Amino acid sequence: MTGTELARFLDWLRSERGSEFASYQELHAWSASDLDGFWSAIAEFFAVRFHTRPTAVLGRREMPGAQWFPGATLNYAEHALAGHEGTAVSAYSQTRDRVELTWEELRDRVARARAGLQRLGVGRGDRVVAYAPNIPETLVAFLATASLGAVWASCAPEFGARSVIDRFAQVEPTVLLVVPGYTYGEKPIDRTAEVAAVRAGLPTVRHVVAIPYGAGEVPDALSWDELLAEPGDLAFDPVPFAHPLCVLFSSGTTGRPKAIVHGHGGVLMEQLKNHALSWDLRPGDRMLWFSTTAWVMWNALVGGLLVGAGIVLIDGNPVHPDVGWQWRLAEESGATVMGASPGWLMACRAAGVEPTRDHDLSRIRQIGAAGSPLPPEGYRWVAEHFPGVLLNVGSGGTDVCSGIVQGGPWQPVVEGEISGPALGVAAATFDADGKPVVGELGELVITEPMPSMPVRFWGDPDGTRYRDAYFDVYPGVWRHGDWVRFSESGSVIVAGRSDATLNRGGVRLGTAEFYGVVEELPEVTDSLVVHLEDPAGGPGELVLFVVPAPGVALDDALRGRIARELRAALSPRHVPDRIVAVPAVPRNRTGKKLELPAKRILLGAPPEEVASRDVLADPTSLDAFVELAR
Asked: In this protein, which residues make up the domain named AMP-binding enzyme C-terminal (predicted)?
């Protein structure tokens, strides 16, 4: 704790506010109840640049519609491009050689891109979208867009045209940035046909800008060099606190993707708090977290700039030429905070990777994990290989553009659990009657507003879809959609999505509990569990799908072993009615298992209505479920 940014904040609270806290629990309780006191402290401690001062911290407290920092104007990009020196961006790719930008070079390119967008007629409120990977050009275009008060949205180039149009068409963009292709591992990928289809499907686009990346050409497009051809002034248009900064899209695995609008001020405040006080990032640090431009972690990665940390951009196959590639990049870039998907950490464990033996990773102070639950074995693997390094497991997401529950320098790491609620987040668990519960599973809720809650959904003028998404069950309380359990000490277990929990005999079971047992068996590579309700009112059927390890057959002996392990580790209720082998478990591109789409297909829903293949990590992974449904 000594020497961390959180310790510096506590010292500041003591000297400037006369406030002292004996524990994280005390600090969190204050942060989640005295919203005016906590968020005004964040704004003052981090010297937020208000062009116009706010008239209050929280003008309206009720949700939805809480009003943060009324009257304030600011600009996110101004904070991201503050006067730091040294390396701001290190970019690694399987398409081209490493690229590095100093802070001065980053500021110059943003100024040039800003001037180029202005020549194209882009101004406040216009939408600029990118069908582009996690490369410096995408970062530069985002910051230039934000500097103008225009609105940003991005999709990764591995998405198919239909999925991109489903997202971008909602916001009616005027400028589209694209790449003609990229390399994934050793495989060149041509996206010129998809680019043409996306252009045809977005009639509002007036200008296309082609970034030179991968093979191929984009006809009738302005080149990236032409966009940046003329020097410009690095200026930042002041915008209201809730002015749209970016539109993030939900996964689209259960319907049309939601276009979630996040504001300049909300994202700024949340990322300043999170990145410094939880992730302990500071000037001179390096943050490495593999992400595509379609995942909220890309926005979190960019947020490292706000606290003066350099960021490491990675594009390509995350396990090419082998599963240890990212550890080599961490060594080369000097990463101090490294993010990882739980699936990748478990793959490193399974492959016998020895990261600290093979690489100098002595600068790493913290390893973050998010995107899906990390099994207890993953905690032990990190502790074994990184003694003294904080493992910070978190859960939150696109909806709040941050974490809801996570760890930090003042919190204990509890094997198999998340340390607790994040600062400023009034997280709790509600039962079906809307009453708080501790020590039992329930709905994850947020009972007080957060600055980074969405401004609105795009194309939802009266707020109906927004209210239905988060406030339909508990009026005035945000229901996040996760099924969790808080312990008496405040630690958290995320048992799965609440719409995918299993109701067996009136008892709701979390899916993550199954996976923690089944996937530790050496004979099983992956698994997915669903409960199929009986429309006639019967008990239904609990079905466990497993991907056997190479060379292993799912026979009665293995089925019996799986059942015994589940009974012993969990309960008799967790023993499935059927265990079925499948070649792959459906996951989205961030690694989350798609229980609900699989279940809907098994209950008879047409697969094309359940999930677009473009959002699947493996486009064929639902095929076995379609066959079983037949």
From this structure: 518-592
Which token pair is 316?
Answer: 């390509």
Site of tokens 């809907």: 600
pTM, two decimals, is 0.88
* H/E segment holding residue 629: helix 623-629
Q: Is the peptide bond preceding residue 535 cis, with omega within 30 degrees of 0?
A: no
pLDDT in tens, 566-616: 988 887 888 999 999 999 999 887 778 888 888 889 888 887 777 777 778
**DSSP secondary structure code for residue 418 in this structure:** B
Percent of the chain with pLDDT over 90: 81
CATH label, 500-629, candidates 3.30.930.10, 3.30.160.340, 3.30.300.30, 1.10.10.10: 3.30.300.30
> pLDDT per residue over 66-82, tens digit each?
999 999 999 999 999 99
Show me where the domains of the chain are located. 5-61, 500-629
Q: Which two tokens stand for residue 363?
A: 């600068």
Q: Which helix (H) or strand (E) holds 355?
A: helix 355-358
CA–CA gap between residue 262 and residue 280 (Å, rounded): 24
User: By three-state DSSP, how is residue 189 classified?
Assistant: strand
| Burial category of 427 from C-beta neighbours within 10 Å (exposed 0-12, middle 13-18, buried 19 and up) | buried
Cα torsion angle, 391, 396, 397, 402, sign: negative
User: H or E element: which one contains 248?
Assistant: strand 244-249
SS3 sequence, 420-489?
A: EECCCCCEEEECCCCCECCCCCEEEEECCCCCCCCCEECCCCCCHHHHHHHCCCCCCCEEEEEEEEECCC
